[in-house]
Amino acid sequence: MAVLPIYFGSFGSLKKWKNPKDKKKKKRSDDSDSDDSDDEDDTTESMSLQDAYMFPLFGSATLFGLYLVFRFLDKTYVNYLINAYFGALGVMATTQVGVNFIAPIVKLLGIKVDRWRFTLTKRRKEVYTTRFTILHMIMMVVSALLSAYYVVTKNWIASNAFGICFAINAIQLLSLDSFLTGMILLSGLFVYDVFWVFGTEVMVSVAKNFDAPVKVVFPRIFFGLPAGEKYQFAMLGLGDIVIPGVFVALCLRFDQHLAGTKNPNLGRSTRFTKPYFIACFIAYCLGLGTTIYVMHVFKAAQPALLYLSPACILSVLITGLARGEIKEVFAYTSEDKKKADKAKEAEKEDKKTDDKKADKKTEDKKKESDEKANPSSDSEQEKNTNNSENRKVRKRKGGKK
């Protein structure tokens, strides 16, 4: 259950490879946008190096805050709010995953589905836009029923369904801008996980009291359990799936980058060699297996990132050294980072122009106020100029005489 979100989320994070030599910009109308969805990519949130440094600190503050909330407040009412919040999020996550699963089947069957577009604008600038179909509405109803079933029954299978959908969406929409960012993030969360699990009771306490689908649970024993005895569950937090999963997805995009530089017409094809993705994916599976084995042997909670972080980082470094591409590994930056840098530069230029316009307006207002305050001075200046011109004319006439 932990490896499936990583696999599908990684391939879901791939975008269409664009030929860098092709400088022609294709302009499409709204009709072509609605009919052809192959060129559309979901917007992703890129994590920078600064975000990677701050992530463990914000995570620690959030975790300790939840620990204090559960300790000093009635956890029943706290979990009511949490269930309402994650129930709404679960509907959206399950809807998106369901559409992504059903849409290719509908397209393969040759069924044409109309698409609608909803756009919010502010001062002629597009603030938010989304596209949806009848599949979205059907899946939203199904997801709402599943969410209601989970809230009422707390069934562990329904909880896992929401958790897996959360993980797939997070891996698809969250991206790392470079391998250095990913390695620093995994290293920081390695320390974070070890400290809060081994050093304090905070992590285990929050995990037990936090009644929300933010973990994947599975029975320790499926068969041979005596009648009437409750299942004993083992659990894996979504953070132990999403954070390494984002790093595995980065490996797959790097493989696409290497293949795209050799074959500029790669497009959306996934038929390319994937050495870094395969190595990191296998390393994650081995690290997860080690975590489960140690947990069963010592009968105690284990920080999964203690094993997953080194496994993922070392797999990339070893593969890069073995292939002689270690420089390319650290030089790689995602397209999202390049777009973000361009957007920041454009935003700075817009701010400069806006500041210039504002300064000009203030100067014009100041001149107008000065003119209104001193109208006599302007008239005196006009009289003086007229008198001087009259004197010049008189002197010229006297000289002629």
Overview in brief:
Helices cover 70% and strands 8% of the residues. With 401 residues, it is mainly alpha-helical.
Fold and architecture overview:
With 401 residues, the chain is mainly α. It has helices at 3-12, 30-35, 49-72, 75-108, 134-153, 156-173, 179-199, 202-209, 239-262, 275-298, 305-323, 326-331, 335-373, 375-400, and strands spanning 45-47, 115-122, 125-133, 174-176, 215-219, 233-237. The radius of gyration is 31 Å and the shape is globular.
Q: For the largest beta sheet, what order do the strands appear in spatially?
A: 1-4
Q: What's the shape?
A: globular
Order of helices and strands: HHEHHEEHHEHHEEHHHHHH
The fraction of residues in strands falls at 5-15%
Q: Termini, distance in Å?
A: 112 Å
Key words describing this protein structure:
401 residues, mainly alpha, two-stranded parallel ribbon, two-stranded antiparallel sheet, 14 helices, globular
Present the secondary structure layout.
Layout lengths: L2 H10 L17 H6 L9 E3 L1 H24 L2 H34 L6 E8 L2 E9 H20 L2 H18 E3 L2 H21 L2 H8 L5 E5 L13 E5 L1 H24 L12 H24 L6 H19 L2 H6 L3 H39 L1 H26 L1
Parallel strand pairs: 1-4
Antiparallel strand pairs: 2-3, 5-6
Helix pairs in contact: 1-6, 1-9, 3-7, 3-8, 4-5, 4-6, 5-6, 6-9, 7-9, 7-11, 9-10, 9-11, 10-11
